[in-house]
Write a structure and sequence with these properties.
Length: 510
């Protein structure tokens, strides 16, 4: 995913023409193509004979012109009721983040998501984990003996421990949107979660968030709860792990409290279940959750779920549950890119009252690449040792603290890169490794060479052999050319960051 979604400042996000055009485009191209190539599309002007559309990158404009112009012309004709000449132009970026996706239930041909307009101005507002931009104090804690305490004047909700006879822990007061680091890895999740927090039951229902351990899924889920409660503390919000839900269900059966259990969960205004993959293999619990889901959905109550994998990859789970999980928006939290990890380090340190130099933050971000919890642990170690030894946080100190800690990387293979590129650019492996020199083939080939050089241990000669025994100088030229473009073309750099994240998290399909 790209780091910013930038609309035309003169194109209202509620523009019915743009909305209709995106619907028609969404029915003709894959979701990944929508998010990569069409996310900054805006209508500049329209007339009975001509329509001008703009994007925020010359690279994207040229790619659309070469590969999607026919699709755009057909979509314009369908949206406007007649053929018109289509002009594609580039516009300056304006600092506004716009996600245009639409609930899949409103689409006619099965694309999962084209987001409804969500406009958030991110410039000047640092949504970073560690120091709040507003809202709850990081030090807010439940009062002793009380069931929850408050954050920002709203009561903290307990996790569900129905039937246990004890109160569960309160929501983490640090898990708010103000303290969430927004980057390419989680921008879609963040935007959709905010939309739900502001308007539960109406935006995306259900919201299904998936991703590897330690990437911030629980933070997002609890931030939704905090936002809903701040807006209306009278709403009934139930937050539970899947294990809590299962244990409560068993205890309700054993204690003859099944009806009370059902009333408790099915009368919620917002039901949030974390780690729903633990429903796997639990037939009776799946049956109960199926009916709970239906009751809430039919009543237009919001449902939010998280898992460590997509719905279709949860083993031994009923197909009807998988189908319902996909009714709304299914979105992934990916591994954070280097820039995002660096920001996380800086803000985690600031949360402990220490400002770390940029070189130290970057060093730690380079050492821990796939798990935010481990990254936070590294920050805690460096800051703690600096405080104990009464010395400043320096690169030498960080290197000393990290000595002996394993570098955490996913093992990216040649096949991973080839599968990603062929899927993303809609070409075959034969075309990718062949002799074709058209832009639609040569650019993906150069990107693949760059990613292989960046994410694998393949030598220039190794990469050359993958692409039909090309000379190593050809590979070196391709890597250098992509590297230069990354420095000058922000949109292209964001595309490369997104592809890199997807490699690290295996978020691609051959």
């Amino acid at each position: 995913m790209a780091d910013a979604f930038v609309p035309d400042p003169d194109a209202a996000t509620g523009d019915p023409l743009l909305r209709t055009l995106l619907e028609h485009l969404g029915s003709r191209v894959r979701r990944e193509q929508m998010e990569t190539w069409f996310r900054s599309l805006s209508v500049v002007r329209s007339s009975p004979d001509e329509v001008e559309l703009s994007v925020t990158s010359q690279f994207v404009r040229d790619w659309l012109q070469r590969n999607f112009l026919g699709v755009i012309q057909d979509s314009v004709a369908a949206a406007m009721g007649g053929r018109r000449r289509v002009l594609l132009s580039q516009r300056d970026e304006d600092g506004v983040d716009s996600l245009r996706l639409l609930d899949s239930r409103h689409l006619s041909r099965g694309i999962d998501t084209i987001l409804d307009p969500i406009v958030q101005k991110l410039d000047g507002v640092q949504k970073l984990d560690g120091v709040p931009a507003g809202g709850a104090s990081a030090g807010s804690q439940p009062s002793a003996g009380s069931p929850g305490g408050t954050v920002g004047g709203a009561p903290l909700l307990q996790r569900s421990h129905f039937g246990t006879g004890k109160a569960g822990p309160a929501l983490n007061p640090n898990y708010t949107f103000d303290k969430f680091v927004v980057g390419p890895c989680n921008r879609l999740v963040h935007a959709s979660a905010i939309a739900i927090g502001e308007n539960p039951g109406c935006a995306y229902n259900p919201l299904f968030v998936h991703g590897n351990v330690g990437l911030g899924k629980s933070h997002v889920l609890q931030a939704i709860c905090h936002t809903v409660l701040r807006r209306d503390s009278r709403l009934r919000v139930v937050y539970a792990s899947c294990e809590d839900f299962t244990n409560s269900y068993i205890q309700a059966i054993q204690g003859g409290q099944l009806e009370a259990f059902r009333d408790y969960h099915r009368n919620a205004d917002l039901l949030v279940i974390d780690d729903v993959q633990f429903l796997a293999g639990k037939e009776k619990t799946q049956e109960e959750f199926f009916h709970t889901f239906n009751a809430l959905y039919d009543a237009q109550k919001q449902i939010v779920l998280s898992s460590d994998r997509p719905p279709v990859e949860i083993p031994t789970i009923q197909e009807r549950l998988v189908s319902r999980f996909k009714w709304g928006l299914v979105t992934e939290v990916e591994a954070p890119c280097l820039q995002t990890r660096t920001q996380i380090v800086q803000r985690k340190a600031l949360g402990r009252g220490v400002e770390v130099p940029v070189d130290v933050a970057r060093y730690l971000a380079e050492r821990v690449t796939t798990n935010i919890r481990e990254l936070e642990g590294a920050v805690t170690k460096v800051v703690g040792i600096a405080a104990l030894t009464e010395q400043p946080v320096t690169l030498d100190l960080a290197e000393s603290c990290m000595r002996g800690m394993p570098i955490r990387h996913h093992q990216v293979t040649v096949d991973d890169v080839m599968a990603l590129i062929t899927s993303e650019f809609a070409i075959t492996v034969r075309e990718l490794t062949g002799k074709g020199r058209t832009q639609s083939v040569s650019l993906p080939r150069q990107v693949a060479m760059f990613l292989l050089r960046q994410h694998t241990e393949s030598s220039l000669e190794d990469i050359g052999r993958v692409f039909g025994n090309r000379d190593h100088t050809t590979v070196l030229y391709a890597v250098g050319k992509i590297g230069e473009r990354v420095q000058t073309d922000k949109m292209f750099r964001e595309l490369l960051d997104g592809l890199g994240n997807r490699l690290l998290t295996r978020n691609f399909r051959a």
